[in-house]
């Protein structure tokens, strides 16, 4: 067996070591035709006034200078760049950053996991959080814009990136992405544990002590809604974040510091549901939330508090099985061969 094949098997084992895979779960494999299918997108997922500015090329979103300029104008004018479906998401992410004591760098090495439109990237850059941002996605965007502020990488290149750089990032932000992984909505391979494998990928890319800002739908009931998304309740959420320390959470401008032991503090993490609509409570700000859902009610998948998660400050090898740890150490020492043609997922 070649060195490349050994590295391939060991990395997959580390990604899948979060939980025991289901019996019908198989590793992600590259698409044989090499094509990328266009994801289904609606205006609520994009910032106001930018829907017509997002282009498409062979299934990949295209980020133009006009798109980035439109987002910058909104930020300059003090307007929100949050998508209508998530009215205060950008503000919650920036507030969550204030709950991080130190990232170990003046301008942390930053990545965004899962992104159709660069509203998060623009907010991070405009507020001076990072000098440049790498976007990682199954359908990686094509960036037709001047400068080097934004870069993109296909999710399938995560292995090569890790082999060449090890744990490369101080800060990773993922909002409304992980809950879809493995359900096929965005033409990704079916995998009931796809979200857990994705979290392991993120964990590997974070340096010890690095921070993940994670937005996923949380509820008082664990559920998978057809093939659209998961709802994370008292069973699945602890499994999802088990390798991280939960420092705080932010929802609609409200901060709750501490871990899951404070989940029931207002605003509660385990938000109650009546059918598919949330009960009254902290309603989204803005006309969209009030006009469409009078009385402050909104859809369950909109309840996505930003979780501030820290990777423990210990060597990555300490959290992997022994035989994987040896390979991990080899990666850190530069002895692992880079594998540009292997994909963690298609």
From TrEMBL:
Residues 20-29 have a biased composition (Polar residues). SUPFAM superfamilies: S-adenosyl-L-methionine-dependent methyltransferases (SSF53335). It comes from Emiliania huxleyi (strain CCMP1516). This is Methyltransferase type 11 domain-containing protein. Residues 20-40 are annotated as: Disordered.
